[in-house]
Give the backbone structure.
Amino acid sequence: MDAPFVLATMARRGLLTPGPPLRVARQLSALRTWGFGLAGELRQAAARDPGRVAVIDDERGPVTYAELLDRATRVTRALPAEPGDRVGVLCRNSAGMLSTLIGVAQFGADPVLINTGLPPAQLARLSTAQNLRLIVHDDDFAGVPAEIALPAARLAELTAAAGPAPLRPPARPSRTIVLTSGTTGTPKGARRPTPTGFGPLCCIVDRIPLRAGVRLMITAPLFHTWGFAALQIALALRATVVLRRRFDPAATVDDLLRHRCAGLIAVPVMLQRMMELPPPAAVPPLSVVAVSGSALPGGLATRFMDRFGDVLYNLYGSTEASWASIATPADLRAAPGTAGRPPHGTRVEVRDAGGRESPPGRPGRLFVSNDMLFEGYTGGAERPGGPVATGDLGHVDAAGRVFVDGREDDMIVSGGENVFPAEVENLLADLPGVREVAVAGTPDPEFGQVLAAYVVRHDGAVLDADAVRDHVRERLARFCVPKEVVFLTALPRNATGKVLLRELRPPAT
């Protein structure tokens, strides 16, 4: 990463603001000794601003950076594992989860971030596949380890251990393992690289204008790639992070107002739920609302900004690629469906079936290059060099904006025509009476495949299957019209808000 860009970005985001010489020296020493992983980022923040509030959660209240470091070090001292072990972390968003992640990392073990929505049977398979030594859990999951016959440690007991003594960096650097979303089976573990400097941080905050010391609410699950990335950014910025164990739209708006948050990190379905509330009497003082994890449906971006201001940023990426592109409020106003433009040091390529780069406007497979590509899956070989395929199909317009047309395995061929379910989803998401919708392909003896629409209506909405089909028929080609329309009370989603297509009820035949 080129030094002028890094220094200029750090200056604009307040990271080069002078401070007490001794504290600045300790801050730089912490980074030099511990590196730019979770342990090093916490230690640099605690060295520079020990009394600053690091975390405010809905159970324990404020925790300073010095206190958070103390708790993390207690976890390290009491952890019943060995350096190099894989330790599952099964916790909800809280100060305790932060102390666990950092405590495991500075011990030299590899924290495995576990989706809190996994059923016991899938968790048992995951534990075997990831070769977990033990699971550290909070009180919400006290009964889970016994169900899967795996050693466990209760977070509250670890943090109540004897007072910490000074630690040295582990001989073996820790590697955080983030699981893929797991919408189609047992999640795979992706080994995340540890940043080697300020470059990755600057790539993000250059486009998403978060500043040092920001008060930032993270509602995205911390076990998810986006929530974990937000935590890394927050520690690097010495931010105050506001957390709530479970997402609630009304409570989120209240927290944003009460804690005077300037930033919100979320997934798109959370914004949808916030928009279902009556407009707040007072608008939170937000300057950044950054989302990732799934596409922004329909006209959500425009509606959200009309209510909360032009503060919305949409990051497109994946567990394997980290980030690919970022849409700013100006991008979303100009083209609400865009995934934005690649940030500094990132390249997005659109390739055709033969592997050649496609010209602007022509769809193809999306590939990403940047400095934070995953190192490989656990249990497998190192990732080959070169760009990473995101698994999506998309295109780039003449202005250089990236658009995601759909997953490679979602596209169907209906009567010889290529059909992207996402296009129909976005159209139906704006149909009055539709609360949420998912569209997927289903086998058909005549056309090979046809679309099925799974629709959740707003309470009291009068909407039938013919109205859904007519809405599509009037705006898209005939092969885009869903043959089946199934009304549901809710769409099945995982803990990150992604729709679980495998759990949708198949259309009646």
About this structure: The radius of gyration is 23 Å.
